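hey can u check if this looks right to u? its 386 residues, i copy pasted from the old doc so theres a chance i mangled smth
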Amino acid sequence: MDDSLLPTPDRLTAWRHDFHRHPETAFEEHRTARRIAELLRQAGLEVVTGLGGGTGVVAVLDGRRGPGRAIGLRADIDALDVEEANRFDHASQVPGKMHACGHDGHTTMLLGAAFALAADPDFAGRVVFIFQPAEESEGGGRVMVEEGLFERFPMEAVYGLHNWPGLAVGEAAVHDGAVMAAFDVFTLRLSGRGCHAAMPHLGSDTILAACQLASHLQGLISRETSPHQSAVLSITQFHAGDAFNVIPETVELRGTLRCFDGKLRDYLERRFRQAVEALAGFHDLRVELDYQSRYPATINAPEHAARCAGVLETLPGITRVHRDLPPSMASEDFAFMLEACPGAYIWLGNGVESAALHNPHYDFNDAIAPLGVAYWQALVTTLLDD
């Protein structure tokens, strides 16, 4: 490989800023995928495109020490439907879309690792670089698994990472089990008899019922979930009415329910449905409920988490590896990959001053890109050391 292609900090920053300027959302990451494939081919890797619904990219690199085990490294590549509030030179050029979660940085770090390892493949076995589309709520990880990712590219373990705002640069977090929560979404429509606001007895009050339901459902968490388990139910949208003096015929609520335990997840869904039906019956309302189970919980295999922590502790740029941080109630479709193949998912500090994920002021911290590259490179050479 030409030394001019090695992943220097300046080159990593240039790649990342290019991805940031051109964000693409779920299953529409065509430019992003083309650029990833172009760079991987420059590094001399075998590249497969068109996966994961059409925009996933996978590359394979064999070590010079000969055959051996295979592991996978995964980065998500999609952006969000968020209008960027930043005004720096590399701000999004696409109205209403931005890399508000740092997937531009994740992509850049994995590309950098591919270049570094291709330049010096001092390991035995195979690395599979997985660039996955549609992580944000659309399940690109599930699609890649269903399309046969692990059959087409057999591997004994798969690893992922996410930048973490609020965690200092140089710090990382590794969990022995649960890392991110399972997440379900719901759309609930209550319909009755609309009426004049001055004569509510002539109709069925959808507003009153919806407000009661929003409060009532919280009892599933506060009174039916053990205090030793984590769960959260949030109603995030409430759509109703057009006039001051009309009780509307229809109210629509939307929201999300999250937890870690599979049995609890099933129980809460069942009780959610029962609570909705009971309250609607009391108010003489019709119910339309669309309840969707989206992502399972992201659960690390303890032995793989220990390997990741051990590698992180050897890196000069890592000052602390947290092993006791609570898991996040946010979700991650890397969970589908971990259900199909053992592995681990870590957090890499994006800085204590970083804006939160999914915030219009967020930006991936370019200072951590070389650290992410070093982590991936060290993980490969450590785990594939014959």
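The first helix runs from residue 9 to 21.
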